[in-house]
Design goal:
The chain is α+β, with helices and mostly antiparallel strands and about 110 residues long. It contains 3 helices and 5 strands.
Length: about 110
Amino acid sequence: MPAGKITAMIGRIWHGWTAPGNADRYETLLREEIFPGIEAKGVAGYRGIELLRRPAGDEVEFVTIMWFDSWEAVREFAGPDYATAYVPPKAREVLARFDAESQHYEVREQRRRP
């Protein structure tokens, strides 16, 4: 995308933390069940998800960034109370704590190198 060109895009950001002993288990759950389940919903305007991971003291922090074309697509995914985090029961079993709400940002600029 050329610098400065803005297209409608919403980033949905969420954080979760787990004990180091549960980190690989949680990442596998995300990759093999949760992310495919999100994709299977077939939400029009859902463009993908990114997973970030880092050690954070006595915990491991995970960040997910979901990408949507519009606020309508976010609401189609999450419902009318779209800020409420989507944390399936299996994820709650291995997470020590997590954001109760996701944060949403409008993308104002993107610059990526080829």
